[in-house]
Amino acid sequence: GLPIALPLLSPGGLVAYQEALGVELPRLERHEPSPLPQVDADQLGWQDLARAVAAAYETLTPREQALAVVYGQNYGEAAAIDVHGRALGLAVPPAISGHNNYWLWGIPPGRGDVLVVVSDANEDCAGGNYRRADVASRLPPNPWVMPYERARWIWICRDPARPLAELWPSTRHYE
User: Fold this and answer.
1) How many CB atoms lie within 10 A of CB 78?
2) Given a cut of 90, is residue 95 above it in pLDDT?
3) Cβ-proximal residues to 106 (8 Å cutoff; 6+ apart), any chain
4) Which CA distances in Å does 17 have to 12, 13, 24, 86, 128?
5) Of 33, 69, 84, 71, nearest to 173 (Cα)?
6) For the segment 2-31, what is each residue's pLDDT rounded down to a tens digit?
């Protein structure tokens, strides 16, 4: 099947095609799988995420915008902001993440007093380090993305008890 190798079909069409052929998808992660092959699912939803982060960022005051950084729970979320935010011409702050190599790049100088966090509903803003956490928005559920990327929340975290740089070493995780 050519439609499995090349993006010729809609997500629903690809799933129907796989089912008609009896194709069973390989598991590439330990997480719950998507109905699409992971390489396809991992390409979807990122522009919507970048737009939601940009909308949250636009609600900040100019001073907060100068201090803000986006924190993605994984490198895919952070990269979506860095790549798609700029490609779409959106006003987004730099993205950081403790996941894989994104952790090595650290926090941009002068930023981190305000976090725009991409997370699930129980985000506590860097281990409770931020005294104020406000929900900015929630992405609508997308059945085609990886399940752990569905219906992500966008939080705005303010008033850190300690500088983010002090917490940065504890954010590293490789999975």
Assistant:
1) 25
2) yes
3) 96, 168
4) 9, 6, 11, 34, 46
5) 71
6) 777 777 888 888 888 888 888 777 776 777
